[in-house]
Structures are given as C-alpha cells and as structure tokens.
Amino acid sequence: MQLTDLSMLELAEKLAAGQVSSVEATRACLERIQGVDSTIRAFLRVDEKGALAAAEASDARRRAGTPASALDGVPVGLKDLFLTEGLETTAGSRILEGFVPPMDATVVRLLREAGLPLLGKLNLDEFAMGSSNESSAYFPTHNPWDVTRTPGGSSGGSAAAVAAREVYGALGTDTGGSIRQPAAFTNTVGLKPTYGRVSRYGVIAYASSLDQPGPMTRTVADAAALLQVLAKHDPLDSTSAPVKTPDYSAELEGGVRGLKLGVPREYFAEGMDPEVEAAVRGALREYERLGATLVDVSLPHTQYALATYYLIAPAEASSNLARYDGVRYGLRAKDAKGLKELYALTRERGFGAEAKRRIMLGTYALSAGYYDAYYLRAQKVRTLIREDFTRAFQQVDALVAPISPVAPFKLGEKVNDPLSMYLTDVYTLPCNLAGVPGLSVPCGFTNAGLPVGLQVLGRAFDEALLLRIARAFEREHDFFRRLAPV
Amino acid sequence: MALTLEQVRHVATLARLALTPEEEQRMATQLSAVLDAVEQLQSLDVGDVEPTSHATLADSLLREDATRPSLSPEQVLANAPAKVGTSFAVPKIIE
C-alpha cells in the first residue's frame, strides 16, 4: 500500500500519531501527479510551492500539539471554479485565462484555516456546463478506470484526481449532478449538500439558484469530515443558511435498521443500462437485508425535470455570464472598434460551444415575448418538482435511486449531440431543483469493470442521515477499496 | 419548435455574441432540438402554481449594515486588460 492510497481520515490518524508528516504526504501526491497526470489530465494547474508551504506550516502545528483541525495537513485539490487568491482561476474557459483572483472563496479560506494543503486546480467543463469534462477549453480529463472514457462532469477533474489518488479529496460543485455523476463514474463518494448549506461566495457562478459546492472523497467518512470543514453560515452569501452545523461523524455508524427508504419508480425508466440497474437493485436488496424497509414512491413530475432545468439553468447562466465582457478582467478582443464590438468579439472568442449554447438558450428563454412561456413556466414546474419531494419525505426517511442511467461513456461519444449529453443527468437534476441534499456512493461495477454509483436523496439539511445510509452500504462492501488501475 | 436564422441572430445580438455563419446555422439546429424537448412543459396545467425562484429560503437574509474593508484599487485593477490611472480603459463608447 502506498501513502497516497490512504483515505483522508487514515492519513489524518497517521499525521496525529506522528507516523508521517504532511510534507511527506504532500510530496507523495506531487509525485503521483507527476507520474499519472499526463495520462489522466485532471489538473489544470499544480501549486507545488503553495502546497508544500502549507504542509510545512501544518507539520509545525502538529509538532507544537496545536493542529488547526482533524484534517490538518491532509492535501486536497480544488475544482477550478473556486477563487484562489494569487493562483490563476479559469473556470475551464479561455475567457478567464490568466485571471488571478484578488481573494479566496469562503470555502477555500475555510480549508486553509483548517490546515489542508491545496495541491492545485482541477479541470472541469467550461463554467461547470457539461457532463463529461469535454467542454473544458483546455483538454478533456480521462477516467482512471478506463482512460478512453469520460470521468463525468462537470467536476470530472476533481473525481478523476481523487480516484487516481493524486489528491486525498477534492471540492466540486453540483448544479445538476456535477458532483454526484462524476463520483459515480469514478468509484468515489460525492455529496451535494442542501442548497444554502455551503457558501457560494467566491465560487464562479453558473446557475445561482442551483449551484452548491461539496466534498468529493474516496470514503463516506471522509465526505463527512470534509463537509464538517465546509458547512458554515457565511454572511457574505445571502443564500447561505443560518443553521447550526451538526457533528456529521456522530451518527455515521448508526446503520439503516428501521429506516424507510423510498424507491422512486420514475428513476428506473426504460433505456437504463441493465448492468447499471442490476448494481443499483443489488444495493437496494442489501438495504433490506440490513433492516431498512423499501417503499415504492412516486415523484410524478420527474419527467419534466430535464426541460425545467434546461430553461432555468441557462437563463441564470446567461445573466451570470454577462459579466465576461472584456472590460475588467480576462480576455479582451484588442482589435475591436467601439465598445459593442469589444463585447461581441471578446465573448465570441472567449466562450466555447457549450457556454454559447446555454447563453443563447437562456437569453431566448428570458427575452421579450418568451419569458412567460419558458422561464416563468419552468419556475412553476420547479415548484411541482419540489412538492413531489416534500410529499415523498412525508412517507419515507430518504430516497435511494440510480445516479446515471448509463455507465461512463467514451470520450467523443456524445459531444456532438447536446441533447443526449443532457439526458445523462436526468436522475440528478431534480435534487438541485428541489434544493435537497444528494450523495453518490460506489455500489458496484459493470462487467467491463466500470463503476456504478447509488444515489441517496434526503430532506433539506439532512446530510448526516444521507451519510449514515451511504456508510451502512459501504461497510458491507469493498467497492470503495478497489483502486483504479492507474 | 424551429428557430429561424433571423431569430438566432437577434438572440445573439441580445447576448452580445458575434457568431460566425457556421455557428448561427448550428445554433439554429441544436437550439431547435432543445426547444422541442422543453415543449412538453406547455402541456402541464400550472395555473395556480407559485413559481420557485430559489430552492430553500423563503426570504433573503439581511446582514448588519456595517462597513468592512474592500479590495484596494490596485487589486481591483490587477486583472484589467487596459487601464488609465485608477480606471478601466475601454474603446470609444459613443459611435
């Protein structure tokens, strides 16, 4: 076993016992990155100097007996959507190439304060718009389980780096499944917290009413530990919820005996890969064996979630991305004659195909004459989707379902067919529309050895229960112990 | 619903995107396909339904109206593609 194969908490234990130093662990990650990242391409930028300096400071705190947190010294990576003071942040877009933020995102600050060395910035679909990492303006990331396939998206770099043991854990963001789907595609754990649970301040905005940052790790306990660092009310984000943070590890081993787990029948629709379905059904039987009761539930508006999402998210995106105009930062078309041409040429050159598609779609849905028929109607259907969840949670404690109807697909397979790409998110989108928490936990493999994830969905602010349910499954299986063949 | 090239050009102008002719063509095809797919929402009766603009919070939260340090002009201008003194420089606005 190599040092980089440890989980975050296993490493933290060794750091606390003085058996290994943070500098050693950080160097091990940097060597691993050097060894495998030319194949995986998870990193847009490695911050060797910054990570080692943070590791040295952590070791000094450990020696002095004053660790900053339980995870002090555990190196992690960041999706390149989080602002990092003094370190280039691009959102995977040409329009922000060379942009060096003057400040940290709140969650980045929280990680620094907790003593976690930050190894660098991880690849993503441009502005988090995509499900395969192929819309990154720089290069696609490869799945460590099969490098001809996508690691999913948009937090594909984060998921791949965690699965390839280049980092011990990572931060991603989830607007329509962007933490959970790549976690499912890489045999890792990904948690999208309740909307408002984790601060969005300094996280480059895609669709503000849906975006939510969260942890991506190799074990459920690690996800709980990392969420513990991130989940804090932030006065700088007016949508950050002023709620108390529970101890996420306290009930982690509580099991599922006596719990009612809803199985939403709409999440097992036709067209699902039979091997994916078999793995998920196997996990459901496991929960029954462990003492949970499975309850058939209906979320009747599920079929409208995709359409609702692809009106609301692009509408918000078209507004958020209006700030990239070549005036204050990022790319500027220097040959423009006049201000209007400066805007149009800068944006034409700076945005990739997917960002442009969503800007166009959102602008259309918000434009005069179409607003009521598209955007407002989508917001109303969003209410119906939320109410589906509210009703379901009156009957059951949580929901268990697939993450993706398909296993990781080949790079290039769906890139020219946006609609078929959008369809891969059909089981993750409703959670964001409802604002409830969701997580992905490894639940098996296809015959070809591709990972499959199980989705657990819960009531708002019930992350602790989701983690406990995921842990109950993880404890019975060694899926998470299997290492990607890189 | 099929989007005409003319509509694509109008939306591109609103979005301040100087699309190439090939992009306009591709946009018309791809956006039409997406609009067809979202058409299904028109079949739902949403007459009395209140719209949801945000996921969990009923009211937006207000914080105390207290001053706090902000970024310095140097920090704000550090990423500027062009500047004059402590201002962002842009091409001529009135054409």
TrEMBL record, chain A:
<feature type="active site" description="Charge relay system">
    <location>
        <position position="79"/>
    </location>
</feature>
<comment type="function">
    <text>Allows the formation of correctly charged Gln-tRNA(Gln) through the transamidation of misacylated Glu-tRNA(Gln) in organisms which lack glutaminyl-tRNA synthetase. The reaction takes place in the presence of glutamine and ATP through an activated gamma-phospho-Glu-tRNA(Gln).</text>
</comment>
<feature type="active site" description="Acyl-ester intermediate">
    <location>
        <position position="178"/>
    </location>
</feature>
<dbReference type="InterPro" id="IPR000120">
    <property type="entry name" value="Amidase"/>
</dbReference>
<dbReference type="InterPro" id="IPR020556">
    <property type="entry name" value="Amidase_CS"/>
</dbReference>
<comment type="subunit">
    <text>Heterotrimer of A, B and C subunits.</text>
</comment>
<dbReference type="InterPro" id="IPR004412">
    <property type="entry name" value="GatA"/>
</dbReference>
<comment type="similarity">
    <text>Belongs to the amidase family. GatA subfamily.</text>
</comment>
<keyword id="KW-0436">Ligase</keyword>
<feature type="active site" description="Charge relay system">
    <location>
        <position position="154"/>
    </location>
</feature>
<dbReference type="Pfam" id="PF01425">
    <property type="entry name" value="Amidase"/>
</dbReference>
<dbReference type="InterPro" id="IPR036928">
    <property type="entry name" value="AS_sf"/>
</dbReference>
<feature type="domain" description="Amidase">
    <location>
        <begin position="24"/>
        <end position="467"/>
    </location>
</feature>
<dbReference type="GO" id="GO:0050567">
    <property type="term" value="F:glutaminyl-tRNA synthase (glutamine-hydrolyzing) activity"/>
</dbReference>
<dbReference type="InterPro" id="IPR023631">
    <property type="entry name" value="Amidase_dom"/>
</dbReference>
<keyword id="KW-0547">Nucleotide-binding</keyword>
<protein>
    <recommendedName>
        <fullName>Glutamyl-tRNA(Gln) amidotransferase subunit A</fullName>
        <ecNumber>6.3.5.7</ecNumber>
    </recommendedName>
</protein>
<keyword id="KW-0648">Protein biosynthesis</keyword>
<keyword id="KW-0067">ATP-binding</keyword>
UniProtKB/TrEMBL annotation, chain B:
<keyword id="KW-0436">Ligase</keyword>
<comment type="function">
    <text>Allows the formation of correctly charged Asn-tRNA(Asn) or Gln-tRNA(Gln) through the transamidation of misacylated Asp-tRNA(Asn) or Glu-tRNA(Gln) in organisms which lack either or both of asparaginyl-tRNA or glutaminyl-tRNA synthetases. The reaction takes place in the presence of glutamine and ATP through an activated phospho-Asp-tRNA(Asn) or phospho-Glu-tRNA(Gln).</text>
</comment>
<keyword id="KW-0547">Nucleotide-binding</keyword>
<keyword id="KW-0648">Protein biosynthesis</keyword>
<dbReference type="InterPro" id="IPR036113">
    <property type="entry name" value="Asp/Glu-ADT_sf_sub_c"/>
</dbReference>
<dbReference type="Pfam" id="PF02686">
    <property type="entry name" value="GatC"/>
</dbReference>
<keyword id="KW-0067">ATP-binding</keyword>
<comment type="similarity">
    <text>Belongs to the GatC family.</text>
</comment>
<comment type="subunit">
    <text>Heterotrimer of A, B and C subunits.</text>
</comment>
<dbReference type="InterPro" id="IPR003837">
    <property type="entry name" value="GatC"/>
</dbReference>
<protein>
    <recommendedName>
        <fullName>Aspartyl/glutamyl-tRNA(Asn/Gln) amidotransferase subunit C</fullName>
        <ecNumber>6.3.5.-</ecNumber>
    </recommendedName>
</protein>
